[in-house]
């Protein structure tokens, strides 16, 4: 593995950091999350037009840039530094790869160029509490099902040659604003029970969407309700979506790990800067040995998480799986950096108005959606066969 970044990768990071510094400061983030969509509607076209960010990891034949997971992870690291609220995670990390992997050629040609151009956003309509199961992050998804009745899931049935969906999914990332929904739905009854993926346009009849309150407002969530909504099957009825979701899960974990590292690195920078300015007993608090030790411990943890995230992105490109452990490391580093940031900022750090709380909420919200850390590690150990037969494998 070559850990050096290429000139192209450095340029992606530099350009994106410069753009986000101008367009996505703390004041802009707070203003964006208060909009109905939960993100700045002008930022997404800017990211698409200048960097091609929505299609960064999509093939060139579908209008994408043709980069790999590594470049997408590096871009998300910069997005994480700014906590930029955008459709990037829901559209480019969760939804677009499934269309690419499972869709027919006609579906790919019709949807992916619009996603790459930034004119179409998408969301995977898996309820927040079921996301880690569907993506096989904390346990296997062999038993994953989108069913559960009208109140507990989404059902699909054939009617006059069309597919009709009914049910609901709550806490869907960008579910309230995405232009296209990828909806897992249960079909086949008890005898031929299976989960399929369906495409539902955001303006489809029978679709009702509302934004929900979320701990981390920079990751807006919505409730999706379907009442006999007409849908298009993604791929074919014989497709088993679970292997595709498992493969997607590792890529998502690697990208999220990089994003968490970016957020942790930024809050650490801000804390170090503040520690050099705030004085007690006539000297900056950053000169006290105890404070130095605490910041040094966070620095080491952030750098270790960065190494793990970069390796996971490289491994995903090689068809290997290391995303779960990298995500656990990244979430732990972000939680530690955010907690220390609040502590070392003193009284001002404990007010909700301080920006440190945005990072703390991101750490807590990501653990709720994609963790917790100990379950990510447990799943990684299970996958590696470390505890096969109840004993440590040698």
UniProtKB/TrEMBL annotation:
Q: Which cofactor does it need?
A: FAD
Q: Which InterPro entries match?
A: Acyl-CoA_Oxase/DH_mid-dom_sf, AcylCo_DH-like_C, AcylCo_DH/oxidase_C, AcylCoA_DH/ox_N, AcylCoA_DH/ox_N_sf, AcylCoA_DH/oxidase_NM_dom_sf
**EC number(s) on record?**
1.-.-.-
Q: What is a GO molecular function of this protein?
A: oxidoreductase activity
Ranges for domain Acyl-CoA dehydrogenase/oxidase N-terminal: 6-118
Entry-linked Pfam families: Acyl-CoA_dh_1, Acyl-CoA_dh_N
Record carries keyword Flavoprotein: yes
Matches recorded under Gene3D superfamilies: Acyl-CoA dehydrogenase/oxidase, N-terminal domain, Butyryl-CoA Dehydrogenase, subunit A, domain 2, Butyryl-CoA Dehydrogenase, subunit A, domain 3
**What region holds the Acyl-CoA dehydrogenase/oxidase C-terminal domain?**
255-382
The record's listing under SUPFAM superfamilies reads: Acyl-CoA dehydrogenase C-terminal domain-like (SSF47203), Acyl-CoA dehydrogenase NM domain-like (SSF56645)
What keywords were assigned to this record? FAD, Flavoprotein, Oxidoreductase
Q: Which family does it belong to?
A: Belongs to the acyl-CoA dehydrogenase family.
Q: What protein is this chain from?
A: Acyl-CoA dehydrogenase family protein
Q: Could you tell me which species this protein originates from?
A: Streptomyces cinerochromogenes
């Amino acid at each position: 593995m070559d850990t050096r970044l290429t000139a192209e990768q450095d340029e992606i990071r530099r350009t994106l950091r410069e753009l986000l510094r101008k367009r996505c400061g703390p004041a802009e983030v707070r203003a964006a999350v208060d909009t109905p969509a939960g993100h700045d509607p002008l930022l997404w076209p800017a990211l698409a037009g200048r960097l091609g960010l929505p299609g960064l990891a999509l093939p060139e034949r579908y209008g994408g840039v043709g980069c790999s997971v590594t470049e997408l992870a590096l871009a998300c690291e910069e997005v994480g530094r700014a906590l930029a609220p955008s459709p990037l995670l829901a559209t480019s990390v969760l939804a677009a790869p499934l269309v690419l992997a499972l869709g027919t050629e006609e579906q790919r040609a019709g949807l992916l160029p619009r996603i790459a151009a930034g004119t179409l956003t998408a969301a995977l309509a898996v309820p927040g509490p079921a996301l880690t199961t569907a993506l096989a992050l904390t346990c296997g998804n062999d038993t994953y099902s989108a069913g559960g009745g009208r109140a507990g899931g989404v059902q699909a049935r054939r009617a006059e040659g069309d597919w009709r969906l009914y049910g609901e999914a709550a806490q869907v990332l960008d579910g309230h604003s995405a232009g296209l929904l990828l909806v897992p739905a249960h079909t086949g009854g008890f005898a031929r029970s299976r989960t399929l993926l369906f495409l539902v346009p955001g303006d489809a009849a029978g679709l009702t969407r509302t934004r929900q309150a979320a701990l981390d407002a920079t990751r807006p969530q919505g409730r999706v309700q379907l009442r006999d909504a007409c849908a298009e099957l993604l791929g074919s009825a014989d497709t088993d979506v679970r292997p595709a979701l498992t493969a997607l899960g590792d890529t998502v974990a690697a990208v999220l790990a990089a994003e968490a590292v970016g957020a942790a690195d930024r809050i650490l920078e801000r804390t170090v800067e503040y520690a050099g300015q705030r004085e007690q007993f006539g000297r900056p608090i950053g000169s006290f040995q105890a404070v130095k030790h605490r910041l040094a411990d966070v620095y080491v943890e952030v750098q270790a998480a960065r190494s793990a995230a970069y390796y996971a992105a490289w491994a995903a490109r090689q068809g290997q799986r290391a995303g779960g452990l990298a995500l656990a490391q990244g979430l732990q580093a972000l939680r530690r950096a955010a907690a220390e940031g609040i502590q070392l900022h003193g009284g001002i750090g404990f007010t909700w108005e301080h920006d440190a709380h945005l990072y703390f909420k991101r750490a807590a919200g990501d653990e709720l959606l994609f963790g917790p850390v100990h379950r990510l590690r447990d799943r990684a150990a299970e996958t590696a066969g470390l505890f096969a037969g109840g004993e440590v494998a040698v």
